Amino acid sequence: MELICFLIVFPLIVAALLLFVRDDTMRSAIVGVSACAIGIGSVVLCALNLGTQGQYFAFDSVIVDDLGPIISILIAACIITFAVRYRNIWAGILAAIQVVLSLVFEFFFAHGLEVTDGLYLDSLSLLMACIIGVVGSGICVYALGYMKDFQKSHSDEKDRRPIFFAIMFLFLSAMFAIVFCNNMTWLFTAWEITTVCSFLLIGYTKTDEAIHNAFRQIIMNIAGGIGFIFALFYSASVIGTLDFNQFIAIGMFQPALLLFPITCLAFAGLTKAAQMPFHTWLLGAMVAPTPTSALLHSSTMVKAGVFLLIKISPVLQFLIAPQAMVILIGALSFCLCSFMAISQSNAKRVLAYSTIANLGLIVACAGVGSPEAIWAACFLILFHAVAKSLLFLCVGTAEHHIGSRNIEDMDLLFERMPHLARFMMIGIMCMFIAPFGMLVAKWATLVSFIDARQVILLILLAFGSAATFMFWAKWLGKLSGIAGSPKNVEITVHKSEWLAIGLMGFLSIACCAGLPFLSSSIVMPYISGVYGLVDTGIDQNLLIFTAITAVAVVIVVLAGLSHKSNKRQVDIYLSGVSADNAQRTYHGAMNHVVTATSRNLYLDSIFGEKKMTPVGDICCSVLIIGAFMYSLYTLIPLI
User: Fold this and answer.
1) How far apart are CA 204 and CA 217, in angstroms?
2) Torsion angle of alpha carbons 130, 131, 132, 138, nearest 10°?
3) What is the DSSP string of 292-345?
4) With contact defined as beta carbons under 8 Å apart, do 235 and 241 qualify?
5) What is the mean pLDDT of the chain?
6) In the chain, N or C: fewer CB atoms in 10 Å?
7) Same domain as 520, residue 436
8) DSSP code per residue over 114-180
9) Residues 327, 378 within the same domain
10) Who contacts 192 (Cβ-Cβ below 8 Å, separation ≥6)?
11) Can you tell me whether residue 56 is helix, strand or coil?
12) Predicted pLDDT at 487
């Protein structure tokens, strides 16, 4: 329990300290040492508890209980202040509603309900803790160099990096609280802290676009938070407990009793996981500095949403209305957002749509709720976290050094930034190419859908996977093109950036190599603890073969990482009489000078956002409304 408390409290202390540190050297030292401590702490916690099926710790603090209402008031005050300053009525109204509901709940419903086992630990929380502690802290280290360059390019503005780094570590603390708290009130408080942290980070640059997108995020996630509060009201007044473990256990035996609160929690999870029709807030987060995007997409915020859905999955599978809502919204988000990613040339936007799509697959697995589906969901979370964080960091560094995040401007990146291009290629391959872990998880997803006889899911999975292959292959092709000898611009990349990128690259390889071990020591114990001893049909020998092959492929990609070739370079063949090889121009058929270019196909007229978004938003909104109407209809007799 000491390590759990350390992981929750220590980032809070660091956040408070960083608020007052303005010296770059001191900030770098504090962030570096703290990130190492958090990362090592999370790994040690995992190593000491491998194979655990669930431990609950007696921890009940009046001080922590009293902090809940204070934090709710502070969060509401922060949001309302910004809402008044920027004249956003809806954000102010929703924040006021939420704080009133929170205070009513705290003083009239939660009072007298004690949760003696305030903290818990199972294999799923261990997996999440490692992702938060290692990937999240690695992103904080990356931010040191990135934000230094960012501040240089915004030298006319006030240096607000102390606030930025403080919020980053506060984010980590709140995420650790989410995965370790068994007290639903504490869980909700941490949930809302991540919401306001995201709001502040997305609006960090204070441009009109950033402010607009930050308010979009806060409005959508406060709506989910209000859904969470209604679940707490019901649990306290009808079930008589705020113990999350007891809540799930009661649902396993009397699922109909939990129909309304499970629907509310599922709704909260969908908003936090940025599923359609709430996906636009995550797309809007792309205006923030790259460390923010990486943190939101890989180890925090959206992962909180899918974590909650997986936790309630054992109950969800017995409730047809919320289950249908979760399964179909997840599947539609996966398919439609994969199609929309095809039409994007902005690398960060491709990563955003890919994130929403992958989260959709995890959500669909949580809705199915079978052991095979949960196995797939856990590995989708893991491989998405490490590969997507690697890609976000690579794109951020590339943008600073080539001046663009557009995939079409990444021509010859293999020559201009050879090391970075290799790391980026590893991240892309981990996302969609056999035999890497993400594809193994998708295979398990396919098996679970077949066993559940979900024909619609199989169709959506097939089409979405085809679209996934197309947009990743286009990007990979751009990176691997070699021609000429453009200037290498990698020499100005900060060491902190290389350290973080190298860490993410190592984690991507290590997770592939350790796939059989991770399955047997972390994922399977969680499944056994929830479902009992079951056979998921996952062949351990197949996992071993897959891991070995994946590592072999990575070694081939990394070959020559520091190798300098002495081979003679020849001019590019330009399909005709060259005009200027250095400029890649040649004389065309009518003797006009033509520039040789290569451009991917984006099919915007077919898969553009304007065509796909309305379809997904309407379908998913209908599913949400239908699920709530059904749950409210069944709630009337109880009232």
Assistant:
1) 13
2) 100
3) HHHIIIIISTHHHHHHHHHHHHHHHTT-HHHHHHHHHHHHHHHHHHHHHHHT--
4) yes
5) 87
6) C
7) yes
8) --SB-EEE-HHHHHHHHIIIIIIHHHHHHHHHHHHHHHHHTTTS---HHHHHHHHHHHHHHHHHHHH
9) yes
10) 71, 72, 75, 98, 225
11) strand
12) 64
Q: Are residues 45 and 179 in the same domain?
A: yes
Token pair, residue 170, equals 């506060």
- Token digits of residue 19: 């608020």
Furthest CA-CA distance within the chain: 87
Q: Nearest to residue 381, comparing CAs of 354, 351, 361?
A: 361
User: pLDDT tens digit string along 295-321?
Assistant: 887 777 888 999 999 999 999 989 999
* Total structural domains within the chain: 2
Tell me: do 595 and 521 sit in the same domain. no
The residue assigned the tokens 């590339």 is 398
What residues are paired with 487 via a beta bridge? none
* Distance separating the N- and C-terminal Cα atoms of the chain: 40
State the pLDDT at residue 588. 74
Same domain, 158 and 209: yes
Q: Is the distance from CB of 346 to CB of 337 less than 8 angstroms? A: no
**Residue at token pair 């077949």:** 450
Question: 204-220: per-residue pLDDT in tens?
Answer: 989 999 999 999 999 99
Position 157: which residue type? E
Tokens in use for 101?
Answer: 């509901």
The answer to whether residues 63 and 188 touch, using CB atoms and an 8 Å cutoff, is no
Alpha-carbon distances, residue 541 vs 323, 538, 547 (angstroms): 33, 9, 10
**What H or E segment, with its residue span, contains residue 578?**
strand 577-580
- The SS3 of residue 454 is coil
Confidence of residue 443 (pLDDT cuts 50, 70, 90): confident
pTM, to two decimals? 0.92
Q: For residue 50, what pLDDT is reported?
A: 86
Q: Which residue has the tokens 């502040």?
A: 200
Nearest CA among 544, 638, 524, 579 for reference residue 237: 638
pLDDT value, residue 184:
93
593 in the same domain as 453: no
DSSP conformation class of 403: S
Give the structural domain span for 584: 574-607
Residues 554 and 623 placed together within one structural domain of the fold: yes
Between CA 247 and CA 250 the distance in angstroms is: 5
Query: Is the same domain home to 424 and 318?
Result: yes
